[in-house]
Amino acid sequence: MASQAKLIDGRKVSEIIRAEVREDVQAMVEAGQRRPFLEVVQVGSDPASTVYIGAKTRACEDVGIGTHTTRLQDTVSAQELKDEIRRLNEDDDVDGILVQLPLPSHLSALDVIETIDHRKDVDGFHPMNVGRLAIGQPTFRSCTPAGIFELLRHYSIPVKGKHAVVVGASNIVGSPAAIMFSRENDSGKATTTICHKYTQDLTKYTISADILVVAAGVPGLIRGEMVKEGVVVIDVGMTRVADESTEKGYHLAGDVDQESVAEKASWITPVPGGVGPMTVAMLMKNTLLAAKKSVYPA
Predict the structure, then answer these.
(1) pLDDT in tens, 131-141
(2) In the chain, what is the greatest distance between 2 CA atoms, to the nearest angstrom?
(3) Annotated active-site residue in 123, 210, 235, 255
């Protein structure tokens, strides 16, 4: 691949963050404090969700955070699920609660997320935490956007005064990322544009981006002719694409056509190995913050 772009190595940076969390957890335990604890709730047996939970469980074990997964049938009622969450809210030994998404169609994700005690919402999805993010108050930041900002910070990629374009407006990645780019604090202060499936002439916006974050879930959506020279590209997408030439029968594709975009970009995240590992690392960091009561003092 003829490429000028330097790779933003999410695996390397995530290891640095995990090492810091591991050190803090060890210090807590040595000081006689309880080990941080993350409770994961899985509804049903979606294979992708099971894989993600496995990665989170292994990360907890790696950094010394206790963890347990409550598995509920996909036929569970909204009331039963919320009763289980309320039980965890009241359990002083549980620092963080994560309900693995997506949920079966008969359950409202927002309704379920709102049931979680915002002081234990280590995913950063609760309206209280999103609202505090929007006004620049201490909060649990959504893990994927938080991971993106850690990558930019690690590689000393400037944000202030730049034009940041976010493609994808989900509550999990796109919307909180746009808030973080635009808000008046040390990490943001970019002029920010958010695009979505109703945006007309997407290229008009992507071509002007100094920093381009793509979280649309559409493989190969962004091509080389849609970006300018020197752009910093953060590819959040990860979709399984059928590929009979591989042992697994598929390969993982991002939302960016890596080959053509890398010829013009100054920095780019690979898929896999870019944003993905950072999401899990920031979940570990949020769980530690919850245990320390750093965001919401007791």
Answers:
(1) 999 999 999 99
(2) 58
(3) 123
Render pLDDT for 77-128 as a digit per residue (tens, 0 to 9): 999 999 999 999 999 999 999 999 999 999 999 999 999 999 999 999 999 9
Within this chain, do residues 165 and 262 fall inside the same structural domain, yes or no? yes
Same domain, 157 and 255: yes
> Could you confirm whether 56 is annotated as catalytic?
yes
CA R_g for the chain: 19
Same domain assignment for residues 123 and 181: no
pTM of the model: 0.95
Res 1: pLDDT: 43
Of all residues in the chain, what percent are helix, strand and coil, respectively (each to 5)?
A: 40, 15, 45
Same domain? For 183 and 271 the reply is: yes
* Closest by Cα among 241, 225, 222 to 233: 222
Lateral strand order in the sheet of 191-195: 6-7, 267-268, 232-235, 211-214, 163-167, 191-195
Distance between CA atoms of 13 and 83, rounded to whole angstroms? 38
* The three-state (H, E, C) secondary structure of 127-155, written as one string: HHHHHHHHCCCCCCCCHHHHHHHHHHHHC
Range of weakest confidence among 24-33, 181-190, 211-220: 181-190
Quick check: is 160 catalytic? no
Comparing 62 with 251, the larger pLDDT belongs to 62
Say which of 42, 56, 120, 257 is annotated catalytic.
56
Pairing of strands 232-235, 239-242: unpaired
**Residue where a domain stops, chosen among 85, 105, 130:** 130
Residue 123 designated active-site? yes
Q: What is the average per-residue pLDDT within 46-63?
A: 95
Selecting among 24, 42, 95, 100, the annotated active-site residue is 100
Which residue range(s) make up the domain with 94?
A: 30-130
Tokens of 220: 């190969």
Nearest to 97 by CA among 70, 77, 78, 128: 70
What is the pLDDT at residue 186?
67
